[in-house]
Amino acid sequence: MAASRTATRTLRALRTSTRPALTAAPRAAFQQGGRRLYSSEPAKSGGSNIWAWAIGAGALGAGGLWYLNQDGASATPKVFTPKFEDYQAVYNEIASRLEEKEDYDDGSYGPVLVRLAWHASGTYDKETKTGGSNGATMRFAPESDHGANAGLKAARDFLEPVKAKFPWITYSDLWILGGVCSIQEMLGPNIPYRPGRQDRDAAACTPDGRLPDASQAQDHLRNIFYRMGFNDQEIVALSGAHALGRCHADRSGFDGPWTFSPTVLTNDYYKLLLDEKWQWKKWNGPKQYEDKKTKSLMMLPADMAIIQDKKFKQWVEKYAADNDLFFKDFQSVIVKLFELGVPFAENSERWVFKPLNA
């Protein structure tokens, strides 16, 4: 795994000097400094100025909330409406902590934060208008216990100190912002973001089975993604997120990374699908593929389905040949995914955040 991290950082350093036009200006590699503190000091007792959060962000839309400013005997309600720079501060907090624990996976929490944002959004049903990122219902059972969400407690726990430091942001907006931040910091395209999601309770949990089953083939993929409102091209573009991260035998049952650089977003996922020779892995686990050459990479049955289906494969070939095209289409489709079913305020604005190491 140490060798994988070294290779990833080398690729990241190279890519910062050759970033596609669609992305931001070249960024330096992540800071490898000491531990960063992420929570403020405890409030001192007996102070004359105490902030008491009174009404959650859901009451006022995109992050607005009341607080009581108590000074002696007086208490004056005020409205705090977060602006771009407030969300940029949350972004920066997440970005600054992504690589704090070198022993976590490939040295970054980025991939698991992308997966959290993806799975929070991917429960949407266009017919019933239920599910999606609005609600952050994975905080509760039974949704938190669904098999497809195994291992995502690590991502939710990672974001808890951020929520404590910025209590005005909803979990729903925070989880998506974590995904946006991680994609950009892992050298992907800039992802436009807009707040306005409201948290909901356990009654809004979605039923199991709405997320893709990696052991299935193209018919299953279409059933899942068509339910959300995606077409074949968008299904393949979203699949490119598998360039990031790895599977874990103690979570999904599958094991291994899809690419040699699991903390850098590239079109390598598509290239590897087409260029490598894949064979069934011989092991005591669920059916998955391994690359014949190194036996260190894996593909899932659902991954292989997109090159076994002619309509899917044409898009795999296009993205394998053109990273800029992949980034353009990925940017568009991930924004669509993250916004499914969200009741944004009329004329709400999308923002693009400055990466921490721009």
UniProtKB/TrEMBL annotation:
Principal subcellular localization: mitochondrion
UniProt cross-references to PROSITE patterns, sorted A to Z: PEROXIDASE_1 (PS00435), PEROXIDASE_2 (PS00436), PEROXIDASE_4 (PS50873)
E.C. code: 1.11.1.-
InterPro entries: Ccp1-like, Haem_peroxidase, Haem_peroxidase_sf, Peroxidase_I, Peroxidases_AS, Peroxidases_heam-ligand_BS
Recorded GO MF terms: cytochrome-c peroxidase activity; heme binding; metal ion binding
Occurrences of domain Plant heme peroxidase family profile (ranges): 169-349
One annotated Gene Ontology cellular component of this protein: mitochondrial intermembrane space
GO BP of this protein: cellular response to oxidative stress; hydrogen peroxide catabolic process; response to reactive oxygen species
Keywords assigned by UniProt, alphabetized: Heme, Iron, Metal-binding, Mitochondrion, Oxidoreductase, Peroxidase, Transit peptide
Family stated for the protein in its record: Belongs to the peroxidase family. Cytochrome c peroxidase subfamily.
Subunit structure: Forms a one-to-one complex with cytochrome c.
Protein's UniProt name: Peroxidase
Organism: Neurospora tetraspora
Lineage: Eukaryota, Fungi, Dikarya, Ascomycota, Pezizomycotina
